[in-house]
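Thread: Modeling a multi-component assembly for a lab meeting

Hi all, long-time lurker, first post. My supervisor asked me to bring a structural picture of a complex we are working on to next week's group meeting, and I have zero experience with this. I have the sequence lines for every component (604 residues in total). Could someone generate the structure of the whole assembly? Inputs are pasted exactly as I received them:
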Amino acid sequence: MTMKTVFKKTNGLTDKPTHYCPGCTHGVIHRLVGEVLEEMDILEDTVGVASVGCSVLSYEYFNCDMTQAAHGRAPAVATGVKRVLPNRMVFTYQGDGDLASIGISEVIHAAARGENITVIFVNNAIYGMTGGQMAPTTLIGQKTATTPFGRDISIQGSPIKVCEMMSTLDGAAYIERVSTHDVPHIQKTKKAIWKAFETQKKGLGFSMVEVLSTCPTNWGLDPAESLEWVKDQMVPVYPLGVYKNKEGVK
Amino acid sequence: MGKVLMKGNEVIAEAAVHAGCKYFFGYPITPQSELVAYMARRLPEVGGLFLQAESEIAAINMVYGAASTGVRVMTSSSSPGFSLKQEGISYLVGSELPAVICNIVRGGPGLGNIQPAQSDYFQVTKGGGHGDYNLPVLAPASLQEIVELTQEAFDIADRYRTPVILMGDGMLGQMMEPVEFGERSETEQFKKDWATTGTRGDGEPKIITSLELDAESLERRNCNLQQKFARIKENEVRYETYFLDDADYIMVAFGTTARITMNAISKARQEGVKVGLIRPISLWPFPEKPFIETRDQVKAYISVEMSAGQMIEDVRLAVNGHAPVDFYGRTGGVVPTQEEIYDKIMMVARGVQV
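Re: Modeling a multi-component assembly
Sure thing. I ran the full set together rather than chain by chain. Output:
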């Protein structure tokens, strides 16, 4: 009896086991990016830029040429790569500490220039790698290592809503926020990543997908509770949807 | 091509173009803004790209990205902006990426002013950013020498896969002199099979990174870097000497300070004082040889700098206690005059002779 293959690991990822914590959705997002690169048949034409944070080692996992950038600077590094190699697909993979805090300037200006790159922005409302400190995306009242009494607007201000802000820039061609808290949303996430790369392929300008993600370790929740927390706590603050699709990419 | 009259900052830019640099990422800062403006106009003519970054930090990281694809790439700045580039430079070193970074030094610390200075000597020669490293640093003293050293800088960068610093002071950037861009003879070819340009047609994915989580592995990597620095020290020392044969006193100066010092030396020689000059051209690796060869014959060395005394530390290391080392410097953008330096020579000559 021959068996039918119903699922296999994408060639977009290497065989190296990831170091991510149980219940963290970085692995899922990596797989989705890898699948899109493979299915679009652009793996060999892609240069990825890894950032600093939990996903720093993503260069070990994506099965394409990879360059590792300094903290927050991935969009600047990607700019350098893309300007020399306009026919290559160039993407960054950044967390919320990297992109929304130390690297907010680089990502805003990359979008303002209409830099024809794709940014995969993973938002789990906390710094993971350094041990659970407040990020610009940390929710009001959320307890972290540096907001032990909960984030207080009068002290730390309000969360930055990156998609809303970025979509005001003329150079931004495709901006969408998606989530990984259940299977239908994971499927939507893959579609969004596809459309972002399609935007770049068509040379339409800057594309970014913000993916709401989990951090069970630093949230102090188990994996299942973490998914619930994304749905119940994060999604109301960070509404899902397409914020910008300038050229109607499908 | 005959001689043309150009401004120092523009000469650096044109020399880079002649060296095959087609990519420049910059940010405006006085007194190097002409360099950026020249590149903005010039690079499109040669099918290259100029991009104004949102900050010096972004500019050096764009350089990192472009360098990772294997092309010749450059950025330039002046002291405060050069400080901002240090993180990126450390990453370039760690990831072994070639690039040329120009620092037209101005008065500091802090915002300082926009007048000429050499007070970034420590920063360029002792590392500058975090981690164990040195950078090749070339310091031209004339605009014609800028032409030669800018091209050398790109070759050194590619030869050793390292960032190279081209260091001038505000005076060198702003002055005008006739220069000639000779045709470059075909230099060595540099194979860049490490460049991340996509894997199509060349096999397994390539990775450019400075991260090495395992301590033993990072130490091995650092040992390799140190071996590279040792090779650079062996092969890339550059300096010139003047009137050392009979010198009782040896001046040490680089860049435009060396030119002013030369005038003071001529005057002192007319007065019968036997003075010579060592002009380091590579500030790192620092030229130790001319000191070792002279230190047991001379009465004293005098380091002349547009700083409170930075290169003097390397002079003392090279002299290693064999002779006294004196100093004359002006800071804050004040350029030492020929007369001041002459007076210093005469004071030391008389003092030691007594």
